[in-house]
Amino acid sequence: MPTPETNPPADDPVNLDPKHYSVEFENDRVLVLRVKYGPKEKSVMHKVPPMITVSLTDRDVKILLPGGRTQRVFGKAGEVVWYDAREHLPENMSDLPYEGIHILLKDCK
Questions:
Q1: Which of 10, 70, 86, 101 has the fewest CB atoms lying closer than 10 Å?
Q2: Average pLDDT, 10 consecutive residues per value, the chain (109 residues)
């Protein structure tokens, strides 16, 4: 749960979906989130700035984008991936839990 020192914007995943997202670290350059989805769980539509994702477990995630398009994202534990800023709704398609670390970049131009 955010503290006064870690106060994400109202439309970010921590405020919209605290069941799946929690703040691990924050400073003036990055916001580091821990992401946990149980089997077949999904989030809500939310915005993220450019970010780096470190998968702590294997992943099989379906991403719903605005306009109804979808992407399927597969990965292995330990994989590091870059994502541009976007709005999306992730859903864990696996029968196993997913856990990852998201490093969101602030004021990235």
A1: 10
A2: 47 89 95 97 93 97 96 97 94 98 85
